[in-house]
Amino acid sequence: MPNKRTNVNMGKSFSREYFYWSMHFAAITVLSLCLILTFLPSIDKSTKESLGLVNFCADLLPNRRWLLVFECTVLMSMMFTYMGLLMYNEDVLTKNLDDITTIIDKDGNLVITNDTKKFIQDFAQNETSGIADLPIMDVCQILYAD
């Protein structure tokens, strides 16, 4: 019996994967060059004149101090972005504990009654069987009431 193997990627373009790989490679290359140029020892004038082509390329590169400023700016912007996203998530996107959406979803069938005795008799002492959701504040009031 012949083994039928199908090509899963048939008709699929890999251009997006190549693009993201090349972006990753370029970012790692720039980061590596910045780190290498930052930690290389400075070259004195007599050695610089004898290097020729390397001297021409070294003149095109930014000064070492500007490389440090660039690296520190990128690092600080990453930190401020991370802290800003963390605060936005905690302050804006997080629901309050007494919000009804923290316990049930939008399709939930919530039991709302104004009479506490009716609530205890009909719902608190019986299983809801997944048909009705009990409000968490009412359940806590029954459980932890004096």
Number of strands: 0
Q: How many independent structural domains?
A: 2
Sheet of most strands: none
- The rough form would be described as elongated
Detail the poorly predicted runs.
none
Share of residues in helices: 55-70%
Element order: H for helix, E for strand? HHHHHH
Q: Would you tell me the structural class of the helices and strands?
A: mainly alpha
SS summary, helix count: 6
Radius of gyration: 32 Å
* Mean pLDDT rating: 76
Oligomerization status of the protein chains: single chain
Q: Tell me the β content.
A: under 5%
**What is the terminal-to-terminal distance?**
75 Å
Protein name: PIG-P domain-containing protein
InterPro entries: GPI_Anchor_Biosynth, PIG-P
Organism: Henningerozyma blattae (strain ATCC 34711 / CBS 6284 / DSM 70876 / NBRC 10599 / NRRL Y-10934 / UCD 77-7) (Yeast)
Membrane topology: Multi-pass membrane protein
Walk me through what this model shows.
- The structure is a single chain.
- With 146 residues, this protein is mainly alpha-helical.
- It has 2 domains: 15-93, no CATH class; 100-144, no CATH class.
- The chain has helices at 15-39, 45-51, 53-60, 64-93, 116-124, 136-144.
- The protein is elongated.
- The model has no long low-confidence stretch (mean pLDDT 76).
How are the SSEs placed, and which strands pair?
Elements: H1 15-39, H2 45-51, H3 53-60, H4 64-93, H5 116-124, H6 136-144
Index terms:
6 helices; mainly alpha; 146 residues; 2 domains
